[in-house]
Amino acid sequence: TQAQIGVTGLAVMGANLARNLARHGHTVAVHNRSQSRTKTLVEEHGHEGSFVACETPEEFVAALERPRRVIVMVKAGAPTDAVIEEFAPLLEPGDMLVDGGNAHFLDTRRREAALRERGIHFVGAGVSGGEEGALLGPSIMPGGSKESYEALGPLLEDIAAKVDGVPCCTHIGPDGAGHFVKMVHNGIEYADMQLIAEAYDLLRQGLGLSPSQLADVFDEWNRGELSSYLIEITAEVLRQVDASTGKPLVDVIADRAEQKGTGRWTVQIALDLGVPVSGIAEAVFARSVSGHADLREAARGLPGPSGVPAGVLDESFVEDVRRALYASKIIAYAQGFDQIRAGSAEYGWEVDPGALATIWRGGCIIRAVFLDRIREAYESETPPVTLLTAPLFVEALGLAQDSWRRVVARAAEFGIPAPGFSTALAYYDSLRAERLPAALIQGQRDFFGAHTYQRTDREGSFHTLWSGDRSEIGG
Ligand code: 6PG
């Protein structure tokens, strides 16, 4: 039998994608560097569909119908290059090589260009949803040529998650577009997780609620506008009791958040593109702060308020925090979508933000009811410059802002760190401001470096002779 598609790299993500394809009736060639994984997959899951187990790359390539469709699921970086080097010489013009890992989009651009020279379509595809998503329906963000999507799209859409019958997979744009949006997806994921964590911390410290009581709060929130996968799993994590100590698991887990790097890339690239993604940046830095045992140890005794005095906060604080969370979340997503639009303009990808919001409604880690609101905003007749000004979000922010301000003020007053909430509010107020103190910064720059400034009332560049008679020159 000829296989419609092949998967090489059979760690959990690869194996689950292969199983998902087989369960949808496709014959799947499977290959792994060490053959034991291939054997295990076919032994344990062979009954789920039609697999062709291949021992060598040559055998694998020969098992595929043409043009060949090969999904590579190996670690990002050098291992991906090694696999490409191994397979590319065996492929023919018109064949497709799909990288489903979390590759850096600049690597994807480089690989796509090199393989295009050889007539091979290289498709950098973001795949989100974790191990379970890969098996039961991920959100898939394929980049690469339009032509390759014609051959790959139907298969990928088949195995993707569906929302209202619409597959969570669409062609994102040329070369690195797919991996770029996946990177920003992860940046947004970091921001969302940080905001949820702050909400938890504020309620725990502010009201003295227990993790299991907080699990109930998050369950409740999951029934409203915050309804999302991340809120849902937050409740699950908070409800978990540690078997060995009998304590809530969250109290036993070391409070150092790790990262594999996609959030950091998002911020690095945002800096290069000049897009203020302060919510994502603050989330990356908050993880970094948590991991700095040395700094935290040294600073532990610094003066600050000692906890929240009894009776100051009441039940209404729960609703305040919920609204603050929703408002901050709107900011984080707005900033992420700004970055996508900036990246798309920079690289000429023509990413459709509405289509992207559509495929993030299901399958991926940030899946949420909220993404449907973003889709509506971008698909409206007058798409907003920033999501903040979409009518729906204007209303939401209007409803939330009093609560949001109270929560940030309370956090500062009681010494509870809320970097995500605070930076989101600062961004909101910065955009709203009639005048920003940036004018003063321009004055300072001109003072020490003659960097010049522009005036509000006349065209041109101006400089004040600060060390002379302080008259102004230029125009
Ligand atoms: C997804 C996840 C996935 C992975 C992240 C975790 O969309 O399925 O984002 O890609 O879980 O890489 O990132 P950190 O390890 O950096 O938190």
Automatic annotation (TrEMBL):
**Which keywords has UniProt assigned to this entry?**
Gluconate utilization, NADP, Oxidoreductase, Pentose shunt
Q: Which reaction does it catalyse?
A: 6-phospho-D-gluconate + NADP(+) = D-ribulose 5-phosphate + CO2 + NADPH
Pathway(s) it belongs to: Carbohydrate degradation; pentose phosphate pathway; D-ribulose 5-phosphate from D-glucose 6-phosphate (oxidative stage): step 3/3
Name the domain of life. Answer: Bacteria
Query: Biological process (GO) annotations?
Result: D-gluconate metabolic process; pentose-phosphate shunt
Active-site feature positions? 182 (proton acceptor), 189 (proton donor)
Annotated GO MF terms: NADP binding; phosphogluconate dehydrogenase (decarboxylating) activity
* Pfam families in the cross-refs: 6PGD, NAD_binding_2
**Chain sites annotated for binding substrate:** 102, 128-130, 185-186, 190, 260, 287, 445, 451
The EC number of this protein is 1.1.1.44
What are the 6-phosphogluconate dehydrogenase C-terminal domain coordinates in residue numbering? 178-467
InterPro entries from the UniProt entry: 6-PGluconate_DH-like_C_sf, 6PGD_dom2, 6PGDH_C, 6PGDH_Gnd/GntZ, 6PGDH_NADP-bd, 6PGdom_BS, NAD(P)-bd_dom_sf, Pgluconate_DH
Q: What is the enzyme's class at the highest EC level?
A: oxidoreductase
| Residues engaged in binding NADP(+) | 9-14, 32-34, 74-76, 102
According to its UniProt record, which protein family does this protein belong to? Belongs to the 6-phosphogluconate dehydrogenase family.
Q: How does it assemble?
A: Homodimer.
Q: What does this protein do?
A: Catalyzes the oxidative decarboxylation of 6-phosphogluconate to ribulose 5-phosphate and CO(2), with concomitant reduction of NADP to NADPH.
Instruction: State what protein this is by name.
Output: 6-phosphogluconate dehydrogenase, decarboxylating
